[in-house]
Specification:
The chain is of the alpha+beta class. The chain is built from 11 helices and 19 strands. Strand 4 and strand 5 form a beta hairpin. The longest helix is centred in the C-terminal third of the chain and has 27 residues. The radius of gyration is 22 Å and the shape is globular.
Length: 447
């Protein structure tokens, strides 16, 4: 890919957060961008939370054209102990939003899509590139042909509405199509998501439906409840249509429990049509008997009172199988095809860094196309960033879910690689790639 080109025809495969962030950045740089997404425009997200880490904040500072706040500010990470007391882990500011709120904000920025979250599109600028978001379309083939002197990438695109297959050409194709990426499958067929031995029971509850005491515990914190080889986490996210009003926000609940593959064959059975899901049982599809058993187990343990208050009020639970992987390459076809986001590397959710990775990759693609770095340097940085934070997520997961020996081993691997990255960053005079918690601290009881 020639980074000296002033204008590129870009196709992004995948229209979730990473694809949209990259699309917004390249649109603002004046390029023509088409996003191909096989899901509908209004997508079911289960109201998952998204932490806006350092790179997400840098992305928003550069590219967000809305001014209203769309995240809940958490001021510390804390543990609820079995005796009901609170043990703060770290006082540090984190901005947390919901997948829905972020998705519709990015859609409004990218193609002006209007929704109940953002009824008006973001104001355009004359230098913006032309864009298109093709929902219910799927890329079925990618190849560089002898046509156009091999300078173009040809794509076959299936329209799920008509079943017609059309052809597209692009100067650059970006694979942002998530953990089951068709782009990665073509170039790295042996790099697949792997089950790590545990799942998350998930759901949300409006703040108004829990007790005052529960709201007080969770109001400004991400809170952990630790047990022997399983744990729960709660944090606050925007409510319906992105509302941040107290009482209208949602409490997001996760309970990580270990299960064998044979046990998954029972847990992952659809409650409506009986088929076996692979990675997620969507809300409305979890079997009633399976969820009832989970509630009974929560009462038997019992979970801490605030956590029990939340889980017993979840009306639409869903189940997520925890998987991970990392890729050894990010660039193909002489830089005409790139991988970013969860298509490149999938973190375990404990570090809440998936959105931050997507933002980092998008900013790096923007700099690559602008000629601010070579392809080799770009690939080195995105791979180091992803591998480093993948190792961190493995360490966190092993600490919460397995024996201490596993956690010590994964901690050693993470900190060793962290040291290598710090030395390399120091040697090149660049910022170290490890992203920690925010250094910004506010008084916990500040308004």
């Amino acid at each position: 890919m020639g980074s000296s080109r002033k204008h590129l025809e870009v196709v992004i495969v995948g229209g979730s957060l990473s694809g949209l962030m990259c699309g917004v950045a390249l649109k603002h740089a004046g390029h023509t961008v088409t996003i191909i997404e096989k899901a509908d425009d209004d997508r079911q997200s289960h109201m998952a939370g998204v932490c806006l880490g350092l790179d997400a904040q840098r992305f928003l500072a550069r590219h967000d054209r809305f001014t209203e706040v769309f995240s809940h500010r958490s001021l510390r990470i804390q543990a609820l102990k079995k005796d009901g007391t609170i043990q703060p882990f770290v006082n540090a500011r984190r901005e947390i939003t919901s997948w829905d709120t972020y998705y519709f904000r990015l859609r409004a920025l990218f193609d002006g899509y209007t929704s109940s979250f953002y009824p008006s599109p973001a104001p355009p600028i004359d230098t913006d590139g032309a864009v298109a978001y093709k929902s219910r379309h799927e890329v079925t083939d990618i190849r560089v042909t002898d046509e156009d002197d091999g300078s173009k990438v040809a794509l076959a695109v299936l329209d799920h509405k008509t079943q017609d297959v059309s052809k597209m050409k692009a100067d650059l194709v970006i694979g942002a199509d998530g953990p089951d990426s068709i782009v990665r499958a073509k170039y790295l067929p042996d790099t697949r998501r792997q089950y790590v031995g545990y799942i998350a029971w998930r759901g949300t509850v409006p703040e108004s439906e829990v007790s005052d005491a529960t709201r007080e515990v969770f109001k400004r914190s991400a809170t952990v409840y630790m047990m022997h080889r399983h744990h729960c986490v709660t944090y606050t996210i925007p409510g319906k249509n992105g509302s941040l009003k107290p009482g209208e926000r949602y409490i997001n609940f996760l309970w990580y429990t270990n299960h064998t593959p044979d046990e998954l064959d029972e847990i992952m059975i659809d409650g409506v049509d009986g088929h076996r899901h692979h990675n997620i049982v969507p809300s409305g599809r979890v079997r009633e008997d399976i969820w009832k058993e989970r509630i009974e187990e929560a009462k038997r343990i019992p979970l801490g009172a605030p956590f029990l208050d939340v889980i017993t009020k979840i009306k639409q639970p869903f189940i997520q199988v925890i998987t991970d992987f990392y890729s050894p390459r990010a660039s193909f076809e002489d830089g005409k095809v790139l991988l970013i986001g969860d298509a490149l590397s999938l973190f375990r959710p404990h570090t809440a860094f998936s959105g931050t990775q997507a933002a980092f990759h998008s900013l790096m693609v923007e700099d690559l196309i602008a000629g601010k770095m070579s392809l080799e340097k770009w690939e080195d940085k995105v791979l180091r960033f992803s591998y480093l934070h993948w190792l961190q997520s493995v360490w966190y997961g092993d600490f919460y879910q397995y024996q201490m020996a596993y956690a010590l081993t994964s901690a050693f691997q993470f900190w060793t690689y962290c040291g290598i990255d710090k030395i390399k960053s120091w040697w090149t005079g660049e910022e170290a790639l490890l992203r920690g918690v925010s250094l910004l601290v506010e008084e916990y009881d500040s308004p």
